[in-house]
Amino acid sequence: MTLREIKEILQAEVLAGEEFLDREPSSACGSDLLSDVLAFTKENSVLLTGLTNSQVIRTAEMSDIIGVIFVRGKKPDNYTIELATIKKIPLLTTRLPMYESCGRLYLRGLKGCSEV
């Protein structure tokens, strides 16, 4: 599954990194605790979160996360979008809540970080 397919499944809007949507995450992680993201995510994952600050991008970079999806229609500020663009981390936003977003991806075959 590619980030482009995830965009369609979640009816998401691309905020940054349209050119990187052919990346294929091996798993997904849904969390609003960046300490959990650092501790439990696997490299090559996609992160679903309600946090919109720049620390999300820095955490994604440190964890080798290949894309970030903001849930509940949240959008980061311009600085965070610019940072993601510089770091080549695609950003998407979906109106769906975290639970439903993760569920849709899991049903379509994207594994959670505990399964990789």
Could you describe the 3D structure shown?
This protein is of the alpha/beta class. It is about 35% helix and about 15% strand. The chain contains five helices and five strands; from the N terminus they run H-E-E-H-E-H-E-H-E-H. Strands 1-5-4-3-2 form a five-stranded mixed β-sheet, sandwiched between helices. Strand 3, helix 3 and strand 4 form a beta-alpha-beta unit. Helix 3 runs parallel beside helix 4. The two termini are about 15 Å apart. About 40% of the residues are buried. The model has no long low-confidence stretch (mean pLDDT about 95).
Secondary structure topology:
Blueprint (H helix, E strand, L loop, with lengths): L2 H7 L3 E4 L10 E4 L3 H7 L4 E5 L4 H9 L4 E4 L7 H10 L3 E3 L4 H10 L9
Parallel strand pairs: 2-3, 3-4, 4-5
Antiparallel strand pairs: 1-5
